[in-house]
Amino acid sequence: MKEVKNNTLYIGNVSTKELAAQYGTPLYIYDQALIEQKMDDFKAHFVSSDFETNVVYASKAFLCTAMAKLVKKHGLYMDVVSGGELYVAAQAGFDMRHIVFHGNNKSVQELEMAVRYGAGTIVIDNEAEARELAALSFEQKINVLLRINPGVEAHTHQFIVTAHVDSKFGILKSDTETIRSIIDTIESNEALSFQGFHAHIGSQIFDKNAFRAEIETMGSFIKEMINKTGRSFPALDLGGGFAAVYTKEDAPIPIDEVCALLIDQCSLINEKYDLHLKRLMIEPGRSIVAEAGSTLYTVGFTKITPHKKYVFVDGGMSDNIRPALYQAAYDADLTNRMNDKKTETVCIAGKCCESGDVLIEKTDLPCAVTGDQLIVYTTGAYGYSMASRYNMLCVPAVVFVKNGRSSLVVRRQSFEDLIERDEGDIL
To answer: So what's the architecture of 46-286 in CATH?
Structure first.
């Protein structure tokens, strides 16, 4: 929860001024209570008397051991897409049976790691991966899903649309012979249980019709595969794509409404096509952590050019690549001057040696001066997880705040950390 006291922004009843003094800036701040509320809301509303339902946190949005522990505490499953994410989950004591392992180019080593760790579900992306997985030896049974490209495109940025016909993800639903071959390959290994299909149509989806189209398309496809194979497919993973509020123009579908929509539409296709679906899964990531996270900066210099005024901060594209990568929009405030009138339209830019290092192209602020603290909201998804060491800038610390207390969950990278893996020798 955010509130203003004495002209200063508080998050989780902790002063941002105190957070900056204690932990430094740039600083990733997460409202732990809001993360927990979002998880509990998905758990409470994605339920059905007709299906087993699983809420699977898409950890690529934000992952550290503290976050994995929160996911475990609130009873969600977890989606990982690499050996590194799987390792972090394991180090946090996450139940490996509740892991869903994704990825379009898993290495043999990663597949072996997933098997060794006892991952509950592996989502196959292509035929070659199916062969690699089927060739492994197993001590326990593993469920397998196949990622299908349904050809349904959500209206979003081209870099975050994942279901156009030339997408790098999944098998086109029309390629039924390859799909049949993958199913046969998986089932050639008695330890693998082919359960059904996965689909994901993009991110930041505001239109309910996109989800309706996805579910109807998958229902028709599953019926076709039932007819072609003479067998049933009890599990359907609908992926994610649930939106978050970045600016005042954003109006995400409320969690209760989108969950009800998904359940109702799946019930409709189950009856319409006689699918015998038993298990539904969704994969919210951004919608759980994005709004709970903010990035706190310190204002450095300002600069006036013929057409704009720049406000420079002590971070930038190294801690938030999204504006440069796909023109993501954000809102901001000066946290130490929350009640001051916003008198200037400025461009908020970072300190990286790139012209594209702009966090917000145009926003209104009070007249900023050196030493002010500036916050960019809704950076909880893909800020920390996509952070880099570009220009040898140190990755910021991560703190959780709740009920007037703060906890350092990831320490700030130090200069010593920047060279810890350097060998130093030259030829």
So the answer is: Alpha-Beta Barrel (3.20)
